[in-house]
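Troubleshooting: if your tokenizer reports a length mismatch, compare your output against this known-good record of 872 residues.
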Amino acid sequence: MKDSPQDVYAKHLPYDYGYPLRGPEPMSGLPETYQDDGLQIGDVGIVDKNGQFDVLFNICKGSDNCLHDRRGVPENFQPTREGEVNHRDNAIPPGPIYSHGMTQILNPTEHCVDYQFHSSGRAGAILILPHGATSAELLSPEQFRKVAMKNALDWYEFAKKCYDDPHLDRSLYLITGFYKAPFWSLGSFNEHKDDTGTIEARRDDANPNVYLLKFSFYADWRCCRGDAGQSVNQTVFIVGFKITFNSWLPDPVVLSVKETETTWSKLVRLLKACFHRLYHFSGGYGQYAAMDVEHRPELSQPFHPSDIINRFLLSKNPNFKVAITHDNQWMDMMKGGLTDEDLLHEDRLETFLAPRYTISVDSGSENTTVFLQGKTRGAAEAVSSVVDPCDSSPGFEFSPPPTPPLDNPWIVITRIRAQHIHSGFKRMPVGFYVLVQTDGDQRRTQNKSVRLNDSSIEWEDVILLPSKASGEVRFTVYASFELEPMLGNGEVLYTSEAPVEELVSGTYLVLFSPGELGTAAPPSLLITLGRRYSNPAVVSSGDDSNQLDSEESSVIIRETNLGQEALLRYYNEYRREELENAVQHFECARRDCPLTHRFRAVVLVNLAKAMFISYRANPIGTNLNESIQLYRQALNLRGPGHPDRAATLLQLAQALLFCCETKDYAEPVAREIYELISQSQEFSQYSHESQAANLVLETLERCSVVYHGHFVGLDKFVRQLEDSTRVPPDGYFDIPQRLTNLSTMLWIRYQQRRNLSDLNRSLDLNERALQLLPACDPNRLPVLKTRSTALWELFEMDGDLSHLTALIVLDEEALRLIPDGHPERSYWVNNYKGHLAEMLECFGNAAVEAREYEEAIAQYFRAVTVLQSAHS
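Known-good structure output:
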């Protein structure tokens, strides 16, 4: 049967904030005062197939509250204290939230279109919040769980009476937090015929607070129709406890799943088997009879991950009556790599549960309840059940892997899936691979390209682990900077070790430390293992295409690895001698690489990149034109269809763009950049190259506006740049450039209109960009320059000496970044002297006032010393 609108919307919208509701507005049957505020913490109810939350009662309100006038309250009802709540005003920033299979087009092709998206999947969802959303969340929901465990069956009986259904086939929801917005527009689609399509959003002429959506294919969409100034009562996401009762779970679940079915259709089959009442109900809290899933009633319970987890918990023991799971628990596992497909396989679900939770049981009352208890820090990694002493039922635990019949099987890695692998702040990768090392032996997977919206990377390489391995197995994730052929090792992103005795058949989860990337979700590898008892010679040992026999190639590889290592050390410490070493090693590799060698293009690109970075750090002694020429030679070697042509096109465009940023804007150079980027067929959708290409065009347009002074369409360009800052993932290396582009255009708009908010926003964006850039990174220089101009403007307006002090500190930082002979050094030296002279003038005749500015006094004496030495 067809999925309900809420099924599709909830399945495909990202779960970053909680469980999404397709019907954010309060139900019309609620009291008027309740409708004004919308859903509240403590509400108990269900989510219907249209995505609206039907409130039955609230556990924090008395039985005489107006909410309870219509339906009353459950038996034995006693209100509970709400507890401390965390409120946030800007919990979700304004803008769109959309499926992984969609990409925002930063330069909409249609007139009057505010947002445009490209979809590459047959299903997806989108939510646009013009004014963002506020949030409220219970800081400690544990008390609510205890109340639910004690009263769950009374609540269930009450719900059956409310819906006049003695065999209610729904779980209950207890809200502990929510996200609310005054306005919204949302849509979803499922199984549209074409693989690709477009989605457009424009502001409604009658109400600019909402967006009207237009799909190039059939889709379901709706928007808020409220007026400006309305209450913030539209609930777009909820978090809370899902309470499931064993009385409507079928036993056993019969699934006849065909191989051609998609993951989602399998999930729907599972949910339909779990959540529908059977034709022959046995009564009481007993189990339902077996059912044929080919003949089933309509699904009335929308998809929810907690329902599947609760079914898994209830299946552990037939005496359990209730299972309770909080949304934060499955959201935590999904951030760690859990997918919808993993929910279908108990062994995979256990793999994600085991490191985080124990299964706990409360049987102190008639409601024998099973739930997940978070592991405390330092707890043993092995998962054991916390069995209630009052429970006389048999104990249970996560099943250990089966013992093989032979004593010494070969352990084989059959699949590796990486989750949340980020490229870092330094360089743009074109691929990733995993190196597996044990007992002096090493094997690696294929080098795989990825797209920005890919939530995971999967390798199906078969890697054999030695049968007599002992100690630790090391897993290392590398970023590569070319796809074919790959030269050298690339850059190490993450490394972790696992005891070899834990690598047995089944799955094993490797969690990495986020390190400097600081990602919200920890990077991970899900390893699928098998056992081989046959001749191990037939087992593949991974991709060894990188191994070369000739002495000539060995020299090229050695020099390339030395150059990459020097470049990485430069990025870590920003010592210019490391940059010089990198250039020398890459130059040696080029010198030893024949013109017809298969690695010739890789060698040229490596040298061009190092020379380009060196020029940006210090233009003296480095020729930017030589770097550009090397990129052009490499591009000629990587013709149309070459897997690395797109990256080379982009690198050449970036080098040319730097000419427009630092030298006079030249129309021929700009045209060449447009021609390079216009080869859009070379940039696959959602790739790192595609995103970087959009950033090149934005930066080029920014340079054009500044150079020509063309301010027509300035507001639209600012909105485009605002959207651009929200496109990349958190921590992505190009965010500082996006912030700088927006900051510069806000400064330009301030100069045109003198709106102080633009000036303040420009400074805020400058500060954010500087926070993301390392202290010694030369890329801080253009950010400091824009910030210096804006701070001087503020000082001239209000005479606040704190601005002047900040300017002097900023000048000193810039001079530390710039070596002697740098073309911009004289600019910063003159700035520094001018600001010090201004400080001297301000304090020369105001000794009494100077006492109020201790830092300014120090600057005063420094100014005297500097100016005296300048005149001597």
